[in-house]
Amino acid sequence: MIQDRATLLAAAAMALSLAAPASQAAEPIKIVVIAEASAIAGVAIPNAAKLAADEINKAGGVDGRMIEIVDYDDHNSAADGVRAFQRAASQDKAHFVIASYVSEVVLALEPWAARLKLPMITPGAASNDISMRVHDEYEKNKYTFHGYLTSTAIADSVCDGAKDLLVKGLKVKTAVVMSEDAAWTIPLDAQYLECLPKIGIKVIDHIRLSPDTTDFTPIFNKIEGQKPDIMITGISHVGVQPTVQWANQQVPLAMFGVSSQATSSTFWKDTNGATEGVVFQAAAAPDVAVTAKTIPYSQAYQARYGISSAYCGYTTYDEVYMIAAAVKRAGSTDPDKLVEAMEKTDYVGTIGRIAFYGKDEKFTHAIKTGPGFVTGLMLQWQKGRQVTVWPTEVANAKMTFPSFVKVSN
Amino acid sequence: MRPLQIVIDGFAISSLYAMGAIGFTLIFGVSGVLNLSHGAIMVVAAVVAWAAAGSFGAGPYLGALAGVVAGFVTALATYFIVVRPIQTSRAIPREEKEIFVLTGTLLWGIMLQEAVAHFFTSNPKTVLPLIAGVIDIAGERTSINKLVTAAISLAAIGLLWLLVNRTRRGKVLLAASINPRGLTLLGFELSGVYLQVWAIYGVLAGIAGVLLGAFLGVSSDNVGQLTASAFSIVVLGGLGSVTGSLAAAYVVGYLETLTAYLIAPSIRTVPVLLLLVLVVYVRPQGLLGRR
Q1: Contact A335, A139 (CB under 8 A)
Q2: Distance between CA A258 and CA A279 in Å, rounded?
Q3: Cβ neighbourhood burial of A409 (10 Å; 0-12, 13-18, 19+)
Q4: Closest Cα to residue B233, out of B197, B203, B188, B276?
Q5: What percent of chain B has pLDDT over 70?
Q6: B158-190 pLDDT, tens per residue?
Q7: How confident is the model at residue A3, as a pLDDT?
């Protein structure tokens, strides 16, 4: 009996102590982060979110409300992602979700954002469908924001870089497009096939490879046999293996395009340096001042986590600030008001000036690209470092290739 | 697309497959254990070799050695932590032991996989090749590493053949696979035989993992695929038949390479799976199986 009473007392005390802070301090702004924690690129999402939240909280939060980050590992699986999203809504009572860099996962979450009226933004998925769905069914899907470049915008960025670096610089005339078979590369490839001929590069062949491919020898041999001047890539799920086999087999064609794994600072070590000479697109780089915020962010990330941020870390960091600003503008965390406030975003972040396309534009809620907004960079691995080779005004190195690569004909 | 390319590439990949599958079939043949943590053991070996060679600066040779040792230790750990306690347990009925071992090794494999992902991330790694560079074979640029992979695989398989067929210790292993009961009647301790076969298996899986890491690269995400690949080769060749597995490895390797070159790289594994279905229908004991 005494024991029972003691238990009861303890429980009451615990309940009080749990309830007390909520009634005293302002309710925190809860941001749930869903990403693949065991991948270098994936873990940059929660890492960068915590970095931004700590900075905002240290400066007093948003009108006295602190930002609280809750993170879930989706193991790169849409099913795990959906479960985490449901939990974010029902248990964590999240106000905003930052989710994944994998298009398939984000596309699976999009209907849940609509159903649960829980605003969501992706810091790294590219598939055009994410923002096109918002356009097609705005009232339903307006809760989703596409906080990264669409595949079409990525392809355009690569083509813009290729025009200066390959066509003008190296007189490249022909290319083979090599992409992995995934949701994000369908619009990417479509845009490659459209924009490359426009800048004067003839596409001889277009190869889509299975993301499960481990032996790339036949693919490289086939491409080499077609004698293009260069390979234009669209890879993200694969990266280390094709890069290492390309170097080991000394495939004499340069790789230029999208190689998401190459954006991570550990890529040099993972490939034992085989990535020397790989040219890849990114929205930001560790040592390029795209804006005044880029370098301070990348240094803070490096200092705190001991590695440099992957591409989706930059966007996540910006997004936490954008969400905080939207909450401030809306004066509430009501989802509809938050969406409305988020749409008014005009924020200079680490990757450039960020604003979202409106509901009448093709890619509703995707970030605006082009001059004055986010333009993208072309980086290259050189001697263990990622250097910027394009655009010329921010470039800190000239593009060079390992001796086995033969570019201009 | 010259035929010689297909011959060289197919030979290299087939030899690697043979190397990967032979330990798996050996352990099943001798002790009746289907080790579903096989892929995980190979990945552990490859990742340790990568870490030793790169992060700890041991260089390619010591790194490779560290990888093989890691494979050996992990295999023995699998035996002592998972397989043996199940085999000697009195709580598990005899007829259910096989399914317990199957489940136990599967779960152990997942634990190893998650441990690798936790400590080394799930990003793929590549082991430094023992010999870098390329040579020209009749006009085909071939990486030396590819030839080294094939040579080491064949050498290891050859040594295993000598061990089994030419030494007394090997003959005991062979006898255990044919009639374990008869062997115990002759006064041999079966647990000792099993330990030996797990030790040999560990070395084979370690070498296979390191070679795989240097040739193609591995990630903790590949664990399931690697086990499945070894499993299908062994089923195709006939469960427990070492020669059958060898033959099957070359069938699979060449069929995949031909598909990748002549049809499309994206459907590389499809014909092999169709063949597997066909073999299971028409000749369930496998190409050279005896059960």
Answers
A1: no
A2: 8
A3: exposed
A4: B276
A5: 99
A6: 999 898 888 988 888 888 888 888 888 888 888
A7: 52
Residue listed under structure tokens 């250097």: A387
ipTM of the complex: 0.82
Cα separation, A50 vs A73, in Å, equals 15
Backbone angles phi, psi at A180, to 5 degrees: -85, 155
User: Do A121 and A365 meet the contact criterion of CB atoms below 8 Å apart?
Assistant: no
Mutate to test the interface with A, among B266, B267, B272 (most CBs of A within 10 A): B266
Q: Rounded to the nearest 10 degrees, how much is the dihedral formed by the CA atoms of A81, A82, A84, A89?
A: 140
Which tokens hold the place of B92? 């598990």
Q: Is the pLDDT of residue A24 over 50?
A: no
Q: What is the DSSP letter of B80?
A: I
Q: Which fold has domain A10-148+291-350?
A: Rossmann fold (3.40.50)
**Angle, CA of A234, B5 and A227, to the nearest 5°:** 50
On the question of pLDDT at B101 being above 70, the answer is yes
CB contact under 8 A, A214 and B217: yes
- B224 touching A, CB under 8 A? no
CATH number, domain A152-284+376-390, options 2.40.100.10, 1.10.3720.10, 3.90.550.10, 3.40.50.2300: 3.40.50.2300
Residue A312: φ, ψ to 5°: -80, -5
User: What is the nearest CA distance from A170 to chain B, expressed in angstroms?
Assistant: 25
Delineate the domains of chain B, giving CATH numbers in brackets: 3-282 (1.10.3470)
Residue A28 has pLDDT above 80, yes or no: yes
Cβ-based contacts under 8 A for chains A and B? 98
Residue of A nearest to B130 (CA): A248
> At A171, is the pLDDT very low, low, confident or very high (cuts 50, 70, 90)?
very high
* pLDDT at A35 > cutoff 90: yes
Alpha-carbon distance of B232 to B225, in angstroms, equals 10
Among the residues of A331-395, which ranges form H helices? 335-343
Q: What is the pLDDT of residue B210?
A: 95
Considering Cα of A49, then A55, then A59, then A60, what sign does the dihedral take? positive
